[in-house]
Amino acid sequence: KNEVEQSPQNLTAQEGEFITINCSYSVGISALHWLQQHPGGGIVSLFMLSSGKKKHGRLIATINIQEKHSSLHITASHPRDSAVYICAVGGNQFYFGTGTSLTVIP
Amino acid sequence: NAGVTQTPKFQVLKTGQSMTLQCAQDMNHNSMYWYRQDPGMGLRLIYYSASEGTTDKGEVPNGYNVSRLNKREFSLRLESAAPSQTSVYFCASELGTNTEAFFGQGTRLTVV
Q1: Nearest-neighbour CA in chain A from B69: distance (Å)
Q2: Cα distance from B37 to chain A (closest Cα, Å)?
Q3: Which residues on chain B are in Cβ contact (under 8 Å) with A94?
């Protein structure tokens, strides 16, 4: 069973492109986290959302609770954005997606 | 502030050996977690501690034990390592509904 589905699994973009990563979930949630993991590295929190939209620099995250869907957008992508992006949803217990591997080519 | 500190970063064990993964956080968080990350799968919860003095099983607790030594420290012990425990292990704190999550750098464990 997959409580969290991310798409696409892999994504290659040219530097400067606008990128969208999607997360759909099937469980009731209190919060959704977007996480970033660089190759061989630790996991860093990007956003915690319970409704609406948040923006940090070139990153924008949105959530539609009724649709059970969230998107992570990266504007003006840069090679340093190359990483795996992970969606996690839940409340008392969290479920994790398998991640979207993003490569941004100069 | 160091955040969440995990040690060691890498470890190779022989089948049957034991080891303890250490995790400490300096943010005065109540809840702490141990996850494992395997290729093609999302992070899976091994054990968690909602507060000092309490621990609970997660999704995949078999073969592991934990200790919440104090509010700062939450260790994960493999008593008799098996090849199926080859994975990357992450400690986290405060993964919840009010704040962002904080993760350690991970421990890459290989059991041969």
Answers
A1: 22
A2: 9
A3: 45, 95
SS3 content of chain A, % helix, strand, coil (to 5): 5, 60, 35
Distance CA B102, CA B74 (A): 14
Q: A40 Cβ partners below 8 Å, 6+ apart?
A: none
Instruction: Report the chain B residue with the minimal C-alpha distance to residue A42.
Output: B105
d(CA A81, CA B69): 37
Q: Write out pLDDT tens, residues A49-98.
A: 999 999 999 999 999 999 999 999 999 999 999 999 999 998 888 899 99
Q: A16-54 burial, b if ≥16 CB within 10 A, otherwise e? A: eeebebebbbeeebebbbbbbbeeeebbbbbbbbeeeee
Task: Answer whether B15's CB lies under 8 Å from B82's CB.
Answer: yes
Give the DSSP letter of residue B27.
S
B32-88 residue pLDDT tens: 999 999 988 889 999 999 999 999 999 999 999 999 989 999 999 999 999 999 999
The CA distance from B87 to B90, in Å, is 10
| Minimal C-alpha gap between B99 and chain A (Å) | 7
Task: Please name the member of A31, A44, A96 whose beta carbon is closest to the beta carbon of B42.
Answer: A96
